[in-house]
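Protein chain data
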Amino acid sequence: MSFEKEWAGLKADATARMQLNQAPTYDPNASPTGADLVVHDDELGKIGHFAFRLHNNLQADGTHARATTESAGASMTSDGFDMGKALTSAAKAWAKQVGTLLDACAHISNHLDYTKASTKKDDEWIAAQVGVSKISAYFDVPDKNAAPSVPRPQGPII
C-alpha cells in the first residue's frame, strides 16, 4: 500500500471520529442517575492526595537520579570518555522531563483541591437558597415596597 493511500485512510478514520464545534450527543443512560458528571468528594480527595504524594516522591527521587547521572557524566568526561558528554546531556533532558511531570502533578493536586473547595462552597450556597425558599413558603413575607404594618394594641392602654 502506498503512503498516500494509507494516509488518506487514516485521515478518513480520524474524520469519522472527530466532533468539532459541537457538544457530544446526549446519552441519557450515561449514568444511573442520568447526570452528566458524577464526582464524589472522597474520590477527588484520593486522586489529589496521590498526585501530591507522587509530586513529593518524584521531586526527591528525580533530583537524586539527576545528580548521580551528572556526577557520573562529569567524572567520565574528565577521564576522557565520550560517554560522559552523553550522560550529562541525558541528565539535562531528565531534569527537564521531571520538571514537566512535577508541574503536571502539582497542577492536578491544586486543581482538585480547588474543585473540592469550590464544589463545597456551591453546595452550601444552594442549600442556603433552598432553605430560604422553604422558609418563605411557610411564613408570610411582606413585600419590600409594602408599608410596615403596626399591630393594634389589644386591651386598655396604660
